[in-house]
TrEMBL record:
UniProt cross-references to SUPFAM superfamilies, sorted A to Z: Aldolase
Subunit composition and interactions: Homotetramer; dimer of dimers.
Active site: 136 (proton donor/acceptor), 164 (schiff-base intermediate with substrate)
Gene: dapA
Residue numbers binding pyruvate: 50, 204
UniProt EC number: 4.3.3.7
Pfam families: DHDPS
Any one Gene Ontology BP term: diaminopimelate biosynthetic process
Protein's name in the database: 4-hydroxy-tetrahydrodipicolinate synthase
CDD domains: DHDPS
Catalytic activities: L-aspartate 4-semialdehyde + pyruvate = (2S,4S)-4-hydroxy-2,3,4,5-tetrahydrodipicolinate + H2O + H(+)
Amino acid sequence: MLSEKSLHGVIVPIVTPFDQRGNLDINSFQKLVVRLKSSGIHGLVVNGTTGESPTIEDAELEAMIAAARSVLGETPLIVGTGSNNTAATIKKTALAKALGADAALVVTPYYNRPSQQGIIEHFRALAEADLPIILYDIPHRTGVTLELDTVKVIMKMDHIIGLKESTGNIKRLMRLVSTIPKPILCGEDELFFASLCCGGKGGILASANLDTKQFVQVYELFGAGKIDASRERFDQLLPLILFLFSEPNPAPLKWLLAQRRHIRTDRLRLPMTSISSDSAEKGVQLL
Ligand SMILES: O=C(O)C1=N[C@H](C(=O)O)C[C@H](O)C1
């Protein structure tokens, strides 16, 4: 199981590869996990936003958890289990635990517009699943605003071990780091280096599916006090990051992974669609 102490570094939310018909391509998935592990990642997230979690069936999730677990060894396995139904979230989190997950990444409940108290109770109820939880705050996707006081209450719960911060607000990040003693991870790839400078403990970064070793170097150079070298390495990654978020994630990422032959197709499941031809032209220049 993952603890506050071991939650840090470059954690990769892996894509879910599909074949031309849109079926799960478990062989490509397993090869991706092997490559990511050998690149030195500090954790893997299966079924995150980048893994197209809204479209993944339970049987597919089970197959991916089993495949990832068999490759990862001691490297932490985190599973995205969040939804806007508390009972369903508890059930999926308990399933993830039974299949060998070390922690769950749980997004704030979206769409049904719970009150701040409702959100607190949602996270409190997750204790029942008996798996460490990382709170995932991404308001531009969920439409849910988490007040700072709400974050503080949730982060005090014993089963909550960290926060994935995707608001993109550096002032807020600094407030969180100074008031919350648990690890805060960057979920806004462009701010990864800045977030380390503010006291963040690492990042859950879709971009790190590619050029993974360089992302790990940014983190390790920073940890070794080589701040300029870390920033220089991060600057080299910026064009990649900007391209990957020029259209909804993970479409550009899947396109690049397919171009580099890491996955067989850039197929997504509707309502997500492949990148436009304009973006593909920009991607070719980047390649
Ligand atoms: O899947 C994730 O976890 C991430 N998703 C974010 C998004 O798609 O908005 C980006 C971040 O890199 C990690």
